[in-house]
Design a protein that fits this description.
This protein has 532 residues and is an alpha/beta fold. It contains 17 helices and 19 strands. Helix 8 runs antiparallel to helix 9.
Length: 532
Amino acid sequence: MAKISVSNLTFCYEGSFENVFEQVSFVIDTDWKLGFIGRNGKGKTTFLNLLLGKYEYQGSIQAPAAFDYFPYQIGAEQLQRCMSEFLNELAPDCEEWRVIMELEKMKMDAELLYRPFRTLSHGERTRVMLAILFSRDHYFLLIDEPTNHLDQASRECVKEYLREKKGFLLVSHDRDLLDACVDHILVLNRVTIEVQKGNFSSWQENKERKDAFQMAENEKHRKEIGKLKKAAERARDWADKNERSKIGFDPVKEHDRSVGTRAYIGAKTKKMQSRVKQMEERIGHEIEEKEGLLQDIENPADLKIMPLKHHKDILIRAEKYGLGYGERVLFKDFDFTLQQGERVLLRGANGCGKSSLIKAILRANAQTVETAGENTDAEALEWVESGGREKSQNGISVPEETGILRTASGLCISYINQDTSFLRGDLSGYCRKEGLDESLLKAILRQLDLERTRLGGRMEEFSEGQKKKVLIASSLLRQAHLYIWDEPLNYIDIFSRMQIENLLLRCQPTMLFVEHDVRFQEKIATRVVEMG
């Protein structure tokens, strides 16, 4: 077993006012299956880049092994070629026969290496790159969010594969994956960094126990400080009052006093002042012990949502409905109803038509909205006004519909697109374009733990998780009868996921959603509709 030692690591991006890491020290083992978690924007990907030597930093990182990183960067020219042709461009010391062996462990056909890379699905690309990663010796592997955009079957395959591996650092917000695949957790807390043995669930249990203890200790110290302050104030008032009475007295009213009493009062006052000083020292000691107790407490604010009540029970109805592109049929004879109060999960393999169905619903509702003169989600309307067109591999195509798809009249929909590439400019411009209250949007983003320094920045510079939070905050701001969310949690950190889960369980809006996070599915969905 070899150790990777990080000592007094300090790093700050050029032009930034705050350090991403400051005097950070910890040790990890190259044989560990290490999970890496933390809030969006806390520096997980930055730390991976520091290990890869991409940035200059203060302090030291001592590693006995070289690092390799997932995902590999695939260029536009490489997309047109087979992986077997540019394999050694990605990993010069990689041998093709070993990659084939790793693919077999994932029950994947070696034929994937001999197809143009652009023709592979997200799941196939992920598994091919993981096979390359684990086919090389003497590397400590840095795996950055491998399950984003993968359907349930692909996630299970990746999970089973990683379960049998070791010697990696896995950045993931997928709680199910972390529980299955890691034996240690590296956590970027709010202020500190900690390494703990176990998986995510054991870490969470320990954290909840630790947080409860620290909150109890904090309350105990707070009460003790209050008592000491009151006692010190009473003693100080008594001492001041007696100090003023040392000189001069009324012999008629104070017949038991004499000039010699002055020394006695002075000595007693001095003793009381000494007691006040001791109390103040104890207060300082209590405050010192109290400091730092709550620095890493995750105490997320309760989010709010404002669902509307519709006058009809059935909001969406599909009868013998089908979608396709020419000879390619996504699905057909699809019967479906969505009732008010339901939270329906659309589940199926990538490419089975989940997102296409969602956009068909938006098109159908936009036609109803235009007829009724109502308003709906600005982003959804913009998509429909562009012709409701979807990009295919061969260019722009319009889906062909069969059967019937209807939405209730006057239905207001709040929509989250899985794509974030359209987010440009600052939040002020985005709010003007979308017709949102800027102060409320920023307040929700702060509740989702987006740093204040980011609120004035350009969205192109946001991490993918921070961009997703902009879309989620926008959706929460819009009053709607129906919330349609298409893979809303990609790149969203674990703590925000739990925050959103609590909101939906508390407010119970009507929802139609696509999401591959197993824990989220289990908690939120009231009904599952299988597609494909």
